[in-house]
């Protein structure tokens, strides 16, 4: 049985993008997956008896709003489930996601200067694969950029990017960025870079071979760049113009939370970002 696609609805700026992207995923990538719209409302304590009617009224109001939003799917004859979750925000949300076990969790992301967005906290605290959208919903995928660093997340990243590109006949570009080597002597620096490139090409071959055990991999090449990781990825996006960026949730050193490169890209990129933890 296919895992569901969960759409986090906060009734704010990017709700439209979340809904449009969810519709695209259902129609084009995951036709067997169930669509679930959900909203979490904070409730610190078990309400006293006299407040229960108020909470019930609030729950019915939110369900009505979710039903209105679900009409976008019903107009396409796509069944939708809705959930309103009460409780301590993080405990309730974590329990809901663990029980649901969605294939993808779709969220909107609004960056702020002086506070951490709730979406970013969700990425740090919850396990799973996230598709993050801003103003631009995902309505077509003709080009996919997959960034790998040969950490544990590289295989699921490449596997998911390969699946999407094959399914939609999209062009797939795979990028790896070597961090800057802070050595002044040019000859030594060049030699170290060449040695590192050889190592990475070997790791690339091993990665492709590991994927080939499960599926057929064709015409997939690795582009290796050198420099600041965030800047080089942004440069590649400007040159390649992908519809979707696929990247790991953490890097080589961080095992939990959200990696610094992914976190920085979330703040500055306008395109949808698929943040992969597992497949």
UniProtKB/TrEMBL annotation:
Q: Tell me which residues make up the UspA domain.
A: 141-276
Q: Which CDD domains match?
A: USP-like
InterPro entries per record: Rossmann-like_a/b/a_fold (IPR014729), Universal_stress_UspA (IPR006015), UspA (IPR006016)
Q: Which domain of life is it from?
A: Bacteria
Under Gene3D superfamilies, the record lists: HUPs
Similarity comment: family membership: Belongs to the universal stress protein A family.
- The molecule here is called UspA domain-containing protein
**Organism of derivation:** Thermodesulfobacterium geofontis
Source lineage? Bacteria, Pseudomonadati, Thermodesulfobacteriota, Thermodesulfobacteria, Thermodesulfobacteriales
């Amino acid at each position: 049985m296919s895992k569901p696609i969960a759409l986090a609805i906060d009734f704010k700026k990017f709700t439209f993008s979340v809904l449009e992207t969810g519709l695209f995923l259902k129609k084009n990538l995951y036709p067997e997956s169930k669509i679930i719209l959900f909203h979490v409302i904070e409730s610190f304590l078990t309400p006293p008896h006299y407040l229960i009617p108020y909470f019930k009224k609030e729950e019915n109001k939110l369900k009505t709003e979710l039903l209105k939003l679900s009409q976008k799917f019903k107009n396409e004859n796509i069944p939708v489930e809705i959930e309103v979750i009460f409780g301590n925000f993080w405990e309730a949300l974590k329990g809901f996601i663990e029980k649901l076990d969605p294939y993808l969790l779709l969220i909107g992301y609004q960056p702020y200067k002086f506070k951490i967005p709730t979406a970013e906290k969700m990425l740090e605290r919850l396990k799973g694969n996230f598709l993050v959208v801003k103003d631009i919903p995902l309505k077509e995928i003709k080009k996919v950029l997959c960034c790998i660093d040969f950490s544990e997340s590289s295989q699921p990243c490449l596997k998911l990017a390969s699946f999407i590109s094959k399914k939609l006949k999209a062009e797939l570009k795979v990028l790896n960025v070597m961090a800057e080597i802070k050595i002044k002597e040019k000859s030594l620096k060049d030699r170290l870079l060449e040695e590192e490139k050889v190592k990475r090409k070997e790791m690339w071959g091993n990665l492709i071979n590991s994927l080939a055990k499960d599926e057929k991999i064709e015409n997939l090449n690795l582009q290796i760049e050198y420099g600041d990781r965030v800047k080089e990825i942004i440069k590649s996006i400007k040159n390649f113009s992908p519809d979707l960026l696929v990247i790991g949730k953490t890097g080589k050193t961080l095992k939990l939370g959200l990696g610094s490169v992914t976190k920085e890209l979330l703040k500055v990129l306008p395109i949808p970002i698929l943040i992969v933890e597992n497949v």
